[in-house]
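Before we proceed, please read the two lines closing this message. Let me know whether the structure tokens fit the sequence:

…
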Amino acid sequence: MRRLFTRILNRVLLSEPFAPAMGGEAELHTEGRRKLVVGLGNVGMEGTRHSVGMAVLGALAARLGAADRWRGDGRVSGEVVVSEVERTHVVLLRPRLLMNVNGVSVAKAAGKFGIKPEDIVLVHDELDKPLGKVVIKHGGSARGHNGVRSCVDCLQTDVMLRLRVGIGRPQGKTPVERHVLGRFSSEERKVLESVLAQSVDLLLAQLAPPPSSSSSSSSSPAGGGRERSTT
């Protein structure tokens, strides 16, 4: 019942079906490759494990020399930075919505900037991977992640590339919800710094692949999904 309610809420907030603006209608009035990188998370809870995707986006913006260029954009219900990585026009997005409806912000941004679902990268936390493990997943199901599920609902496809950042499962009898909504411990923060750097390296490799790479390697058919892990 909760999943059905969330799906309905996604559609209501989105107001109209997703369709990327093209040509003169798109906000990016430039030719060439376009990518949208999204840090999934909860508005107002940027320092929690569940919002580690936002932390990765902050680190990516800093690496691109754009840390001070975040701006609120009411049309996409989020904060946006527009940059460029080796002739690829890149839009960074941090949704200003709750995790369960992050997809609304993603679909609005993709529509505004004329970016197709296969050119979207979702960065999010992953319970089933330990902190320090980062995995690239090419499309496929949401695997129980509400933010990813919202994106799939709103974009009406599951081809989006994902960067899954491990946060590990809770120890002892700590409830999962309390764990994911909690902040990293002092010991975890020591590991987190290298995780953010590693995540940015992987994102930059995806945004500017070597000339010999096949463009088909960044997506997979709906319902599929391939993983490549790093430590």
